[in-house]
Specification:
Elements (H helix, E strand, L loop, with lengths): L1 H9 L16 H11 L9 E6 L1 H12 L5 E7 L7 H6 L3 H7 L24 E6 L5 H6 L10 H4 L6 E5 L10 H13 L8
Parallel strand pairs: 1-2, 2-3, 3-4
Amino acid sequence: MRRLAARLAAAGYRVHNLGYPSTRLAPAQLVTRLSRDLERCSDAPRVHFVGHSFGGILARAWLAEHELSNLGRLVMLAPPNHGSELADLLRGSRLFRWALGPVAAALGTGPDSFPNRLPAPRFEVGVIAGTRPVNLFGALVIRAPSDGTVSVSSARLEGMADFATLPVSHTFIMESPRVAALVAAFLRAGRFHPSSA
């Protein structure tokens, strides 16, 4: 996220790039940890969120439980809002659990998965999905347009304010200058392409 953070800082935003130990803590524990990390932003006139993959889900989960008087907007990059088919297939894999930790078991497409239990957002959300898989295994498993990890249909979210797709992969979506421009546009105006609103 460093390059995206630098581009948003150049666009005039004060950026806090928050990490989280998803290989060690369960989703509910990560939501609690986020409260502590967000104390740094308490004096901001508006607090926006930009999250990649599970990071966007984590922001949604936190915002479902907390009120912010200075809440801005949320941009989700390649989010598994309805889980990932890849997570379904690899759930039993030790390597998968080692790489993603407790979060791995929570990202399936079933109705009880962590993202599928979250309520619809009560705030402005923009979603950007990728359509260029570089993960050939993921492209074979997900038999629909996808970024190789999350299908475009899974990224969509009921109640979102705007949606965009770009030919980028799941792993490198945040590196794209076009993605950075769309993020900045949504944070400013609540639309990815404000002139077409």
